[in-house]
Design goal:
With 369 residues, the protein is of the alpha/beta class. 29% of the residues lie in helices and 24% in strands.
Length: 369
């Protein structure tokens, strides 16, 4: 449970997240009760804790998770009890213009519900005696059970360990998707990835999968650079004052594609500057709403540079998650590189410290067997 944002680190001492009992109402129309098995600790969760992503409080956090369906509400027919599922942190109504045009992660009703801390239909199934408790991105996965819209769920093969399945709900879908769906990198093109958390490392995997020619990675942490090289990157740059110059040198004047996975306007500016004439910077990380970006406006015309956004990897979750799972099973996505170890829910504040310090890619919270 998160009750206030902005508590200072170390989080093991200030303890912004508390483990509490909450009441969970049964699933309503089109909703499903899921027993959660594993949830990944993502930088987006930390961004809510530190106040960079304002959300209504109190709230049960967690948006990258997997579990088993235990009960379905009236009218729910997309999943059945016993199904193994991965969460999509954007519930998709299926009726708005983005959903109808094949861009469900931009669902208008889903975005409205997520901002309000409710489920897709506007309901809240979490509460305490003092009042309602808000849902995080329609999931609230840092809990033993969740009630969610059935449109927040993607069924997966029960043979896939749920601890692995959780990673496909955010890190892999967002990172791989930014490369294969948003950028549509072609064989031989050059790619530079800024920021090597779970999403950035997944973007590296996506670049390898796409047959990129030169893959450069940039981060402030040596261990993450080493992981990216293990994933298939050819060149690693330790972030410094001359980062852009190093990227340009390694890509013969600039990359075809720069994937920014930090959530910083300053880093996005570097990513844009590190692209060649005709190159594209893809913004994947979520910066604080107050941050603004400054780029040379003339470069958009005279150099035909582009700047595009990628939310949740421009994915169609019910299409892309099963595909990525098959790529993992065939050995083409080294998903195991993302795993920074597991922890109990009671240790989540210490895990926030490791995440904030850049010491972990994806820590997995154990919730049930």
């Amino acid at each position: 449970m998160l009750r206030e944002t902005g508590r200072p680190g170390p989080y093991a001492r200030s303890r912004p997240l508390s483990v509490e009992e909450v009441d969970l109402a049964p699933p309503g129309p089109g909703e499903v009760l899921v027993r959660n098995a594993t949830a990944g600790l993502c930088h987006s969760d930390l961004s809510v804790v530190d106040g960079a992503r304002p959300r209504p409080l109190p709230m049960v956090l967690g948006h990258e998770a997997a579990g088993v369906v235990e009960e379905v509400g009236p009218g729910a027919g997309l999943v059945a009890p016993g199904d193994h599922v991965v969460y999509s942190f954007v519930p998709m109504c299926g009726a708005c213009a983005p959903c109808q045009s094949g861009r469900p992660v931009l669902c208008e009703q889903g975005a409205e519900a997520n901002a309000a801390g409710s489920l897709l239909g506007g309901s809240r199934r979490l509460s305490q005696p003092a009042g309602p408790v808000h849902h995080h991105l329609g999931v609230s996965g840092f809990a033993e059970h969740s009630v969610v819209s059935e449109r927040s769920l993607v069924p997966v093969d029960p043979d896939l360990p749920l601890a692995k399945a959780a990673l496909f709900g955010c890190a892999l879908t967002t990172g791989v998707g930014a490369v294969v769906n948003t950028a549509r990198v072609r064989p031989g093109e050059s790619v530079v990835v800024f920021g090597l958390g779970g999403v950035g490392l997944s973007a590296v995997m996506g670049a390898v999968l796409s047959g990129a020619g030169t893959i450069v990675v940039v981060d402030t942490t040596l261990t993450k650079l080493e992981l990216a090289l293990a994933a298939g990157a050819q060149h690693a740059v330790l972030a410094a004052d001359d980062t852009v110059e190093q990227v340009r040198d390694l890509t013969a004047g600039g990359a075809d594609w720069a994937i920014e996975c930090v959530g910083s306007a300053d880093v996005l500016q570097q990513a844009y500057a590190g692209t060649r004439r005709g190159g594209t910077a893809v913004a994947v990380g979520l910066p604080h709403p107050s941050q603004e970006l400054r780029i040379p406006a003339v470069s958009l015309v005279a150099e035909e540079k582009r700047l595009v956004g990628s939310y949740m990897g421009s994915a169609v979750p019910r299409r892309d998650v099963p595909r990525m799972i098959e790529l993992y099973r065939s050995g083409r996505l080294p998903v195991d590189l993302l795993d920074s170890g597991s922890l109990a829910l009671d240790d989540i504040n210490s895990a926030l410290d490791r995440l904030a310090a850049g010491e972990a890619v994806r820590q997995l919270v154990r919730l049930s067997a």
